[in-house]
Amino acid sequence: MLSIAWAPLYAHPLPANHRFPMLKYELLPEQLLREGIVPASAFFTPQPPPDASILLTHDPDYYRRLCHGELTHHEERATGFPWSPQLIEREVTILGGTLECARRALQHGVALNIAGGTHHAFRDRGEGFCLLNDQAAAANYLLAHAELGVRRILIVDLDVHQGNGTAAIFEHEPRVFTFSMHGARNYPHRKEHSSLDLPLPDNTDDATYLSLLGQTLPRLLAEHQPDFVFYLSGVDVLATDKLGHLALTREGCRQRDLLVLAACHQAGLPVVVCMGGGYSPRIADIVDAHVNTFRIAADLWT
Predict the structure, then answer these.
(1) What is the 3-state secondary structure (H, E, C) of 102-151?
(2) What's the order of all strands across the beta sheet hosting 176-183?
(3) How far apart are CA 58 and CA 95, in angstroms?
(4) Global pTM?
(5) Residue 242 phi, psi (nearest 5)
(6) pLDDT digit string, tens, across residues 264-300
(7) Half-sphere exposure (Cβ direction) of 284: Cα atoms closer than 13 Å
(8) Which GO BP terms, alphabetically (predicted)?
C-alpha cells in the first residue's frame, strides 16, 4: 500500500519567477490519479511537526530566525526565496510530510513525498531553494526513537546536484551513510564530503550512469547494512534539463528508479522517496519522469 504526502501549499504561494518549477507539485497528483496508478485514498495531508523534531537536526537560533523573518539579506539571498510566513509554512509542512512518510514506510514498506529532498539545507543555514533538510530531519527522528528499531540509515541522493547540506549534517554520524551521485561541475560549486561521492562528467549517458549505480548500490547495502533507506529521485539528471548537464533519457531515469527501489524491496528495507529537482523546459518531461517513480513503487509494493 502506497502512502503519498501532498498538500496544496507545496506549490503555493511563491513568487512568479518560481512558479514554473513548482507546477509539478500540482500536476503530479492529478496525473497519478488520471492514470490510475494510485487511488485517492493513497494521499495524506502532512502536518507541521513539533519544533522538537526539527531541532533534532537544525540549529535553534537559525530555526527561530527563519520562522520570524530575521535572516540577514545574505542568508535570505542564499536560499533563493524571499521570506514570507507562507514560505515557512510550506517548508515546515514538507518536512512534516517526509517525517510522516518515514513512520508509514516502517508500517507499509514504502512512502513517497510529492515534494521534499531539500538536501542543500545545512544545520544552521539554507541554500539553493532549501531552508530545512527534510530527509536529514526524518533520519534523525528515526534514530532518536530507539523503539522504532532503526539503527543504521542509507541516504541515496541521485539528484543531479550534490546533497551538500545532508553530507555536512551527517559528516560525523556513523549511523547514517550518505551517498551522492551527481554532476561534477554542477551546483554547489563548493562540495561537502558525503560518505561516498560519485561526481559525474557532463553528458554522462544511460549506460554509464546505470552501470556505475548498479555496481555501487548493492555494495553499499551489503557493507553498511541499513535498516532504512531515504531515496532522493531528482529528475534533473535528464538530458532535457536546463540545469543538469547530464544526458539520461526518460527510460534511463526510469531504470535508475527501478534499480534503487527493487534493491530496497528485495532486501525488505523500508524506503522513503522524495522527488527532488527537475527543470526541463517542458513540464510534461518533468511530470512523466516523476510518474515513473510512483508507478515503479506501486508495482513493487502493491
Answers:
(1) HHHHHHHCEEEECCCCCCCCCCCCCECCECCCHHHHHHHHHHHCHHHCCC
(2) 43-44, 4-5, 110-113, 271-274, 228-232, 153-157, 176-183, 196-200
(3) 12
(4) 0.96
(5) -80, -10
(6) 999 999 999 999 999 999 999 999 999 999 999 999 9
(7) 0
(8) epigenetic regulation of gene expression
Average pLDDT score over residue span 98-126: 98
- How far is residue 255's CA from residue 81's CA, in Å, rounded to a whole number? 33
- Per-residue pLDDT, 22: 80
Domain residue ranges of the chain, discontinuous segments joined by + = 4-301
pLDDT band of 225, cuts 50, 70, 90: very high
CB 234 within 8 A of CB 160: yes
Residue 18 confidence class, pLDDT cut points 50, 70, 90: low
∠49-68-232 over CA atoms, to 5°?
45
Q: Is the pLDDT of residue 19 over 80?
A: no
Q: What confidence tens digit (pLDDT) does each residue in 158-212 have?
A: 999 999 999 999 999 999 999 999 999 999 999 999 999 999 999 999 999 999 9
Find, among 296, 292, 277, the residue nearest to 234 by Cα.
277
Q: Which three cell numbers stand for residue 116?
A: 521534499
Closest CA to 301 of 81, 112, 102, 41: 112
Instruction: Give the rounded distance of the alpha carbon of 247 from its chain centre.
Output: 21
Distance CA 58, CA 294 (A): 30
pLDDT band for position 14 (cuts 50, 70, 90): low
Residue 132 neighbours by CB under 8 Å, 6+ apart: 54, 57, 58, 63, 66, 91, 92, 94, 95, 118, 121, 126
